Amino acid sequence: MERRKLRAWALLLTFVCSWLSACNGNVEETTSEWTAPSVTPHPTQTPTPTVYVDPDLLVELDVEEVEDEEDGTLTVYTWTNTFTNLLNEYTDVDFEVELIDINTYSTRLDQALASGEDAPDLFVCEGNIASRYIHSDNTLPLNDLGISYDEMGEMYEYSLQFAADDDNIIKAMTWELCPGAVIYNRDVAEDVLGVSEPEDVAPYFESWDAFGETATLVYDESEGDVRVVSGYDDLWRAYSGGRTSSWVVNSNLNVDPVWTDFFDLALGLYEGDLTFDTTQLDSDWLANMNNDKVLSYWGPLWLVNMIKIQDPYGHWGVVMPPEEFSWGENWMMASTSCDMKASVAQIMRDLALDEDNLIDMAGDGKFVNNMSVMADIIDSEDYQMSYLNDQNPYGIFNDVAMEIDATDVTRYEQSFNDEFLNIVALYVEGEFASKDDAEAEFETIVTELGLV
Predict the structure, then answer these.
(1) For residue 121, what pLDDT band results from cuts at 50, 70 and 90?
(2) Is residue 53 part of a domain?
(3) Total structural domains in the chain?
(4) Does some domain include residue 60?
(5) Rounded Cα gap, residues 209 and 19, in angstroms
(6) How many angstroms separate the CA atoms of 41 and 200, rounded?
(7) How far apart are CA 121 and CA 139, in angstroms?
(8) Are residues 370 and 293 in the same domain?
(9) 249 forms bridges with which residues in the sheet?
(10) Which pTM was predicted?
């Protein structure tokens, strides 16, 4: 597997679990007469507004009124017209957008922020690079924009955790969250599991032990024609919930036991031929969405829409993952060069705090960052999706969002994840004699890159 493939889309958080070390043997020895584990129905949690941000967890600065520079122009950096469209739709604030190619976006943004010359007042970043700017001196606390934490009381907790810097001061805001779930092909499920409804499929994914058995069952029942996932990196984000520590502890590299366990997971899948060994977002990964060769994909609502494009006549469903995860939020931040603080604050309020606007966004299929809005949607028949056989998936995505923990995200989270996945790929292909050797090489690489 090429390093560049894994580097492209490994995102944010890392994983736990070594269940597949038991599957490293001959998969033909595993019986196909397997019964799904019993499971108590998962009750949908009712989102409860935070009301206030716990001062023991997050630090609030003094909040004062702010103003714009007279005759100033609010400049926005973005790489996508999607954000520009949101601004045009939901705010009356005047602004000028600089649309930058995604391949050069970080470089341009870094240069502008470092020099202060032509720096944007407001910019937006995808989650895989946002932590670099949240944990830097180039962005303003939201309090410095006149935004109080009380205003953010309806937001999901993990969105506040992720947006806080090393001093636990919130410096970013998002209007839309991307909690992930298991999105499964109903037709494939019926063929290999004998069931297709979410309540019947859920037990096959309720834990990592259940998933391990399901991976082998799918292979056996299809005589090697179908896989439980397209590639082992499909699971990478979901395993993040098992981590209990950060990549960096006291300025030193820290390899949480769950990352060590991921070597076993990846090797078990690889040696057992239990995936097609694709990489997320490559052509083979996309092609497997519409050929009935893969039981499940793992991701947020936007991935449901991606699957629908690839497989417009398919029948899919959504169930809880074994561990909570997210993939793909976009974060608004103000640069320290911002001289249009009042207008930037108004844009953030219009996009991420205005309840009427958020209700409208939810109607367009977004999982918005407001617990009260989502509470009204969870049980509504108006939000059933025909593509999901009239399932309303918002309750499942909500339950995931309620449990995500983003407290251990580091400034260079993406770089650590990329390099670790590169090492995992080499390990499963036999480039290292042991996990210890693989971890030693990982430590050498991240040290040379200056990440620790």
Answers:
(1) very high
(2) no
(3) 2
(4) no
(5) 6
(6) 10
(7) 10
(8) no
(9) 252
(10) 0.87
